[in-house]
Amino acid sequence: MECWDVVVIGSGPAALRAALAAEQTGAHTMLMGEEGIGSTGIGVPGDALAASLKESSTKGHRDDTIRAGDWLSDQDITVSRVTAASRIVAELEGWGVIFRRNSEGLPHSFAGPGQNSSRITGCGDATAREVIQVLEDRCMKSGIHRKGDYLPLELVIEDSKVRGVIVLDQNQGQIRAIQAKAIVIADNGFEGAWNGEPTGGTGQALAAMKGVSLRDLEFQAWTPLSVSGTNISLPLGLLANGARLLSAGGEELVSDASLSPTMISQVMANAGEGCVLDATRLSGDAGIWYASTAALLQSRAGLDISSDMIPVEPSVSATIGGIPVDEMGRVAHGEWGMWLTGLYAAGDASCSGMHGASIAWGNRLLDDLVGGTNAGEHAGTWSKSTNSGGLELLQQTLSHVQEELDARLLNDSGETRIGTIREVLRKELCTSMSLSRDETSLQASLDTLERLEAESASIGLDDHSLLMNTELRQALNLKSACSLARMATASALARKESRGGHSRTDHPERDDDNWLKHSLISADGNVGALPLRMSASGTWILSPDE
């Protein structure tokens, strides 16, 4: 049985950065992802990074983040994240990320959705790709052991302490037990469920299965630039570089730079169908930095960005809620100060508290990198002070998981197919968990999702082997997505107010008296709450009245 100090689950920016940070502490680290090596398995985490490079302090960045999050941000964590942003940019530049430059040779900065000052920097539409490539290079140079096509099936926890994880090695067609002192869950969220591609949320579902109540699942981040009739989402940088969002009647919809992408999506929804993006007059050298987007539109949709109006509509770009963590990435278990020892989370799998109810542009990638760094560093340091254990429990869990999976594959009699459940799930979420919600539709959808979750446990399969069975992986991912969608809908039903991306037509106002707190929901549907974290003194840094 393999034994590691730290196992990092995921393959995106948060996972790569966590693995690097853990390795740098001297911890024996393994990075594994359910996709093949070189594939993140996630949507692009953003075409920009927010950092106060031209400002005398990070106060503006902090305040914009809290306002975009509709005052549901944990303010102490927000402060620590935005303070680290300039260091993150310098670190990436030193490792080889080629940022867009200004005339002075410094990283080019400009304002964008949710950011009132010029604090957005990046590499145009290649930002996420460049960051991931550089981090992967660093992981290879550091000699970090990496496994692809490793699907985590169950966390092994003994007396509230992590002992390891059971995985499906798709390359060898075997179920394996991996012993670990610490585990960092840093895979993706389940945003694909809204778009008919539920391929994520594995880590969140594993944590919920072990009794972790997930936080703020009712909130999702929306992008206004999803090309109608396709699965293409355009980079938000177009809006900050001369592109205009127009209604069907030609009226410009967005003139307020302080609106987050989710708020812009709500404006679009109110404007009705037929919205278009006019990117025919991009400013300066923006056309060069978004050339890949132009080529993609031409090849996939036959649209010329320099002359055509591009039909766009809102779609979910990320889930904000997830595994509740503190600043160091430690997983909170029911309340602050209670932790599942050795379990960490970062990136989209986590709910760090930075974003609140809506994400300001550039903060998603920032949260991935800072959160991954903190979680990996703390996990690595902590792992060196403890011993491995739980060998007997790991072996018992391995046998149990093996028996369950063998029984499913050998006795498969399910008639419902992956595509059927995937489409029903998409329709339910797009109806009840859209930009406009109400109690009647949420309750009806909750009943449907409970039935769908039960059906997803026995999806019919054509391939009954364990070796590179992508159909089995999709079925297991879909079951996780159904479970998380049901939990998110129940959480949305419980929050009787409108805040950020959660807009209730039957409760249209924000209710700070009763709902200025995080929601918690367990796998069996029990709803709870977690108080906001303020400043070190316990007071508001920026109050809802400001």
Topology:
Elements (H helix, E strand, L loop, with lengths): L1 E8 L3 H12 L4 E4 L16 E2 L8 H10 L6 H9 L1 H11 L14 E3 L2 E7 L5 H15 L3 E3 L2 E9 L2 E9 L4 E12 L16 H8 L4 E2 L4 E8 L16 E3 L14 H11 L4 E3 L7 H4 L1 H11 L7 E11 L3 E2 L5 E3 L6 E7 L4 E2 L11 H21 L7 H20 L7 H15 L6 H18 L13 H25 L17 H4 L2 E4 L5 E4 L16
CATH homologous superfamily title of the largest domain:
FAD/NAD(P)-binding domain
CATH topology of the largest domain: FAD/NAD(P)-binding domain
Q: Provide the domain count.
A: 3
> How many helical elements?
15
Quickly give the CATH architecture of the largest domain: 3-Layer(bba) Sandwich
- State the low-pLDDT regions, or none: 41-45
CA radius of gyration is: 22 Å
Please describe the biggest sheet, giving its number of strands, its sense, and whether it closes into a barrel: 8 strands, mixed
Task: Write down the overall mean pLDDT.
Answer: 92
CATH class division of the largest domain: Alpha Beta
What is the helix content? 25-40%
Gross morphology = globular
Query: Tally of extended strands?
Result: 20
Give the N-to-C terminal Cα separation.
Answer: 56 Å
In percent, how much strand structure appears in the residues? Answer: 15-25%
Class derived from helix and strand content:
alpha/beta
